[in-house]
Amino acid sequence: MTELLSNYVSGQWQKGKGAGTALHDPVLGTELVRVDASGLDLAAAFAFARHNGGAALRALTYAQRAAMLGAASKVLQANRDAYYDISTANSGTVKNDTAVDVDGGIYTLSTYAKMGESLGDVHFMHDGEPARLAKDPLFQSQHVLTPTRGVALFINAFNFPSWGLWEKAAPALLSGVPVIVKPATTTAWLTQRMVKDVVDAGIFPAGAISVICGSSAGLMDQLEPFDVVSFTGSADTAAIIRSHPAVTKKSVRVNIEADSVNSALLLPNEAVGSEAIDLLVKEVAREMTVKSGQKCTAIRRVLVPESLYDTVAQALSARLAKITVGNPRNEAVRMGAVVNREQFNAVRDGLTYLKSQASMLHDGNTHALVEADAAIACCVGPTLLGTRDAAGSDAADRVHDTEVFGPVATLVPYRTTGNRHDLDHALQLIRRGQGSLVASVYGSDPVALGKAIPELTDSHGRVHVITPDVAAIHTGHGNVMPQSLHGGPGRAGGGEELGGLRALNFYHRRAAIQASTAVLTQLK
Fold first, then answer.
1. Residue 141, domain CATH
2. Mind listing the pLDDT tens digit for each residue in 371-414?
3. What is the DSSP string of 40-88?
4. How do residues 243-294 score in pLDDT, each as one tens digit?
5. Would you say 494 and 259 are in contact if contact means Cβ atoms under 8 Å apart?
6. Which of 41, 108, 223, 227 is in the most buried spot, having the most CB atoms within 10 Å?
7. Which letter, b or e, does each residue of 462-479 get, where b requires 16 or more Cβ atoms within 10 Å of its Cβ?
8. Across-strand partners of 442?
9. Where are the alpha helices (DSSP H) in 290-340?
C-alpha cells in the first residue's frame, strides 16, 4: 500500500485510523499516496489551535509575524522542485500551470510578509481618525481593529492546493489568527507537504498552523463564536456551510467563493485587424488552457460584436488548434489533464448540456493525446462553442447560468446596429451571470473604456482592462494578484479575499473606543 499521509493537529503529526482515500495521477492512473482523517480528536485540535496557537501569535507584533511569513516563503522556495513534482503527478499540470499555483502561492506569502513590515511593532490597528463626540474635542471616538480570538478554518478547492492555502493563510497568520487547513482530498498531497516543510522548519508557534487531510466531517461542528471559516468551492456546498448552526446560531464569520461564469468583453468600436482583437484572442486561449481551464477566474463567456463573430471565432479556433494535450512530463505538451475521472465526466456532461444551445466552433476531441492513453488519462481538449447570433445569445440561458469547470468557453455575439445601445446589450448579457469574480474588457479607446468599466464594477469583484499600451505588462485576466481584491457578488459567493491589507479585516474585530483625547493617545 502507498504511504498514508499524516495530519498535523494539536502540535503533532497524527495518522488517521482508516485505510484512507487514494490520490491518483490523472494522466497515468497510478496511485500516489493516501489521506485519512478518521479518528482524530477534532475538539482537541481546534482548542489547541484556538488557545495555544492564538495566544502565541497575538503575543507577537505585526512586524514579528510578518518576519515569520518571510521565513516561511524562503523555506517553500528552497523546496520548490519537490512541489513541482507533486503537482505534475497529482494535478496533471504542465510546468507553466504548476507555476501559477506553486510560485503564485509563494509570491503571495512573501508579498504579505512585506506588507506586514509596514504595520510595525504594534498589536492592533487604528481604523480611521478620531471623531469628535461633543463640542469640546476632549471626548472622542476612535475605531480600532483587534485580531479575533478564534481560529480560521479553511476548506479549500482542488484546483489550487498551494495558492489556495497561502492566499488565505498569509493574511490570517499576519493578523495573529491560527489556521486549520482542510485541502480538497483529491490534491491534498501538495498542501500537506508544504505545511510539513514549514512546520519542520519551526517557524511558527505550535498550533499556529494545522492541516487535516481527508473527510471534512465534523469540522464545522467545532467552530465557536469568534472563529471564522473561509470556503472555496461549489455553491451547493457553500449553502450547506451558510446554514450550519455555527453560522446561524453562533454568528461565525463566513467568506465564500463559489461558482462564477466570468466574461471577456470586446468593445463595439473595434475593427477587423485591431490590436485589441488580437489581445482578446490571445488571452481567451490562455485562460481556456491554463490548468486545463480549472480556474475559478477562467473566461467562460467571450462577448464580441455580432459583426466580428466570425473573425474572432476563426482566430480563436486557429490558436486553440495549436495546443498539444497529454502527458505533462513531455516538454511538447501545452496542456495536461483535469484533476480526476469525476471532473473529466463533469466536463463532458457540461459540454453536452451547453451544446443544446450552442454550436461547436472548435472541437476538443480533434486533439490527439501525446504520450497518454485516452482510456486512462483525464485529458480534455480545449473546446470553443458559439451562440451563432445576437438572438441566440439572448436565448441561450444555459451559457449564462452554467460553469463548465474545464477548457471550455462560449463565444457570445451581441447586437451591432451602430448605435449607443449595442454596448447595453453586451452588458445585459454579462449581468445574466448573476455576479462574477472577474470580467476583462478589451479596447483601444480610453473614453469608451472609461464609460464601460463602471457598468461592470457592481457585479464583479475585479475588472481587468487590457489595452494595447499594457499588452506586454498586464497580469492576466485570471491571475489573482495579492494587491487586488479576489471575490465577487451574487452567485460568485459574495466574499472578499486579498486586496492588499484589506484581507486582514476578515480576521479582525472592529470596536469603537470612546474616551478622552489623553487616553486615546495612549493606545499603542
1. 3.40.605.10
2. 999 999 999 999 999 999 999 999 999 999 999 999 999 999 99
3. --HHHHHHIIIIIIHHHHHTS-HHHHHHHHHHHHHHHHHTHHHHHHHHH
4. 999 999 999 999 999 999 999 999 998 999 999 999 999 999 999 999 999 9
5. no
6. 108
7. bbbbbbeeeeeebebbbb
8. 266, 466
9. 309-320
330 and 471 within one domain: yes
For 139, the 3-state DSSP assignment is strand
Closest to 465 (Cα-Cα) out of 483, 440, 499 = 440
* pTM of the predicted structure, to 2 decimals: 0.96
256: part of which helix (H) or strand (E)?
strand 253-257
**Cα 260 to Cα 234: distance, rounded to the nearest angstrom:** 10
Amino acid 449 reads L
Our CA angle for 380, 385, 388, nearest 5°, is 170
Catalytic annotation, residues: 257, 296
Do residues 341 and 401 share a domain?
Answer: yes
For the segment 161-184, what is each residue's pLDDT rounded down to a tens digit?
Answer: 999 999 999 999 999 999 999 999
**What number is the average pLDDT over the span 121-150?**
94
Q: In 3-state terms, what secondary structure has residue 7?
A: strand
Residue the block writes with cell 484512507: 20
Contacts for 4 with CB less than 8 Å, ≥ 6 apart: 15, 16, 19, 20, 33, 34, 35, 36
In angstroms, rounded to a whole number, what is the distance separating the alpha carbons of residues 114 and 76?
A: 16
Grid cell 506553486 is found at 102
Close Cβ partners of 410 (under 8 Å, ≥ 6 residues apart): 300, 301, 302, 354, 358, 384, 385, 386, 387, 396, 399
Distance (Å, rounded) from C-alpha 386 to C-alpha 399? 9
Write out the three cell numbers for 332. Answer: 511538447
d(CA 191, CA 35): 12
Q: Check which CATH number belongs to the domain holding 276 and give it.
A: 3.40.309.10
Whose grid coordinates read 467552530? 223
